Amino acid sequence: MEEKQIQWPRIYLGLMVSLAILVSLMYVLTLAFS
Amino acid sequence: MSTLDWVVLFLTLVSIAVYGMYKTRGKKSLENYLQGNKDNWWTIGLSIMATQASAITFLSTPGQAYEDGMRFIQFYFGLPIAMIIISIAFVPIYYKLKVYTAYEYLENRFDLKTRTLTALLFIVQRGLAAGITIYAPAIILSTLLGWNLTLTNIFIGVLVIAYTVSGGTEAVSITQKQQMAVMMGGMILAGIMVIQLLPISMKEALQVAGKMEKLNVVNFEFDLADRYSFWSGMTAAVFLFLSYFGTDQSQVQRYLSGQTLTQSRMGLLMNGFLKIPMQFLILFIGVLVFVFYQFNTPPVHFNQVQTESLRQSEYASEFGHLEQSYQANFDSSKQLYTQLLSSINQEKSETTKELTKTLNDLKAEQQEIREEVKSLLITHDPEAETRDTDYVFMRFVMDYLPTGVVGLLFAAIFAAAMSSSSSELNALGSTTTVDLYKRSIRKEASDTHYVNSSKLFTAFWGFGAILFATYASLFENLIQAVNLLGSLFYGTILGIFVVGFFIKWIKGQAVFLAALLSQALILVVHFFNGRGLFGLHWDIGFLWYNAIGCLSVVLFGLILQTGMGTFVKEKSLKD
């Protein structure tokens, strides 16, 4: 794998989106069982 | 523990250490000793995770969830953001300059004294933390297993020293793969077994946990004094993680052992993806243990050595009465839980509310009984350790999990202690050699000489850590102690790197003075936190020290550089 072949912005965006999804799911868990 | 457990425990730990030494035997160059065998991204990712996951993570975190719920997870929300920033701004520079340690960069950018100061700050902070990393499991495991504390310290310390000294960075990353497998395998197995032991369904377990405020995962309220909230995780914790992963040699050395820049970046991002789910799993197991103990009588105090000594003392009858009250309280709650679950199922919101309130009152009463037991422990022995949160998970493991699994989980805790200690000792040895010895004490010597010096310094820090572990009992909360130690120094270190990477205009003299001022400021803020000084009063969580330290280095640096610039200008005009 070469540095130039990797679409870093997409990976960074994917990581941020997965963080947002995780936080949302956890918030749903907090609200659903409070 | 049974014979099988002892076999599993010793075989796992010793075979990992021996395998590490065997695989990395033979003569090494300094580059090979300090940077390993050029790992791929997933080895780097596992190594980064194993370095951060200390025994504290596995001992205290489930206990923390048992007491305080899952809100601690918010502390990790800033981690993926920090991984991205480090991947973009920090790693390419380290690669470009081909450094062994992060602090080498500082001489390139500023001057020798800034590099030496930062390396010393790291050494002080990490040297102390290495002692706690060994002490944390030793104090708890020695109590649980009935071992002598000093011997437990020596057992962990000597095994780690053996393979870290002999094989260097390569031995650290090879053993960390197996240690991670033992840790995660053990925890996943424990999680499955708790679920099987629950007398209610998973959905009902979540309902019980939710009503007892254990599923308080995300809190969006902003409060500076609240250590764990969404906002502190997304702001203050980012500074801590930037500093820890970006400038702490025990982590930097992990990703500098990558085959290429790409592999190192991917290893960091793997940590960004997996860390929160991993912490969630550990905390969730703690919550499940809490639910389990709502249907099975929990010990009134989880440190059995303490309660046994109370039982043998003149306070035995008083303790017996407290145990009876505790049992009566438990019996009442257990009945109410059955009613609560049927009330939730039948959607009777008023009854659910009332039952939840009664259960919370009973829980408060239960807590009062536990506090009375702690007071009794102190009356019996003023030196007694009354905090029992760190014993919750392993007490449960010993009392309820089957033979063999108990040994595996003890091995997991020891493996966690060893994985983080080995990275710390490896980094301390490297920094002492590269940034102090090779740079300022003995500049010209053979490669073999520096490899031997690295081995000697690694061993020195290892034995120092064992010695420090003996005095670590002065600290009350293990997690807080390690994080606090980090937070006192990390902000300043990060500030120096931030100035280096992003504010090219600030030069060495200004950043050096700014770092000293910032460190003094942090110490003043810490020592007068909650007490105030000169009529000013503040009460902030220690996580914020990272942000204050970093920003104050930048601010002082800007002011000092401006002042110095003006001074130099005036001087040159006069001349």
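Chain A is about 75% helix and 0% strand.
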